[in-house]
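Subject: Sporulation and spore germination

B.,
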Amino acid sequence: MKHFKMRRLLSSFLVTTLFLSGCGLFGESDTETDSENAVNSDENLSDESGSDEPSDEATDEENSEDDEAEIDQDLTVWFPKLENTLLDYKGDGNEFAPFTRYPQFVKEDSLQMVESTAGTDVVTVYNYSDDEIKESFVRAETYFREDFVDTGLESEQGNFQIILQKPLELGHSWESPDGSTSEITDVSVNKDLPLGSIEAIEVTRQYENNSETIDYYGKDIGLIEQIFKSDDDTITVTSTLSTQAADTPEAFPITVYSIDDQALGLDKSTVTMELETNEPARLAMAEILKGQTPDTEESQILKESTEINFMYLRQDGVVHVDFSTDLSAMNAGSGIEAMTLQGIVNTIGDYYHVDEVLLTLDNEPYESGHILLNEGETWPVDYGNVNQ
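Prediction pasted inline below.
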């Protein structure tokens, strides 16, 4: 639907026909003077009454056009790459209406965001170009931090949405690969939120099943409100931004499995891993396993000199974690070494919600005086020796 504007300029000129009559009582010069004065008077009247002033309608249309011309065309203004900011949305309509959003990784041309509801955590990667912002990766049930742009894990979804597209003007519409159609339906909305009055643009998205969402993108904030309506208007779900907490890390609960005092089994303890935007999980995981974070001093598994070189989820559902070579230099018997490795595998496997972990040392198979793993051999998560 295109929004057209018409401009109309009204002009009028007053034309007066002068009827002069003479009865022979006036001379010729007087008649000419009177005629000249009459013409001058008419010209002045014409200037006053027909001065090319625009009508009220034209003025309103010009103001509307000016307002539209002032819409910032920088897409990052309306969908910014925030860092270290927790966005909390209150909701109404069902149990999944409230949710939080957190920016996990910010790059020059992409933003990885996690959205957490009562049901699941969904990670989405948004790609930024000069003309549009669109999804390029979507993965549900993702309760761990991973840079999916770098690891190259395939998306669980192939049909993506285009979030915003230029030109940002009333009536502009576009189709997304998922079959939905979006249209900019307002460019000058002021939404009253707990944060205050926010300037926003309105985007209405129609889906193939005739349901729709109305998204409001606030200046320098991003999504500030989302309204979902079912095809028959019997269901309405509203999610509205309530707080924006800057300088806030993302928190993950971690269960650490460490050898007990008698070296007979594994004790488990729950700690919190805190990650800011662009922080990889491997560094924080190494600190936790070394007992260098609060509440982990008594559950140290790694030596202080041991580092995690890389850690990521493979496409086959196995986590590959590569340590520095001094991991194998434990100076312990085979039983203690095996139990230590089991504690590491259980801790990392729990974090990723997987059943198998591939342990390597500087990208070579794990090898020590007691334990030798073959190329590609994995270590299973096992809770058989965990103390209750």
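The radius of gyration is 35 Å.

T.
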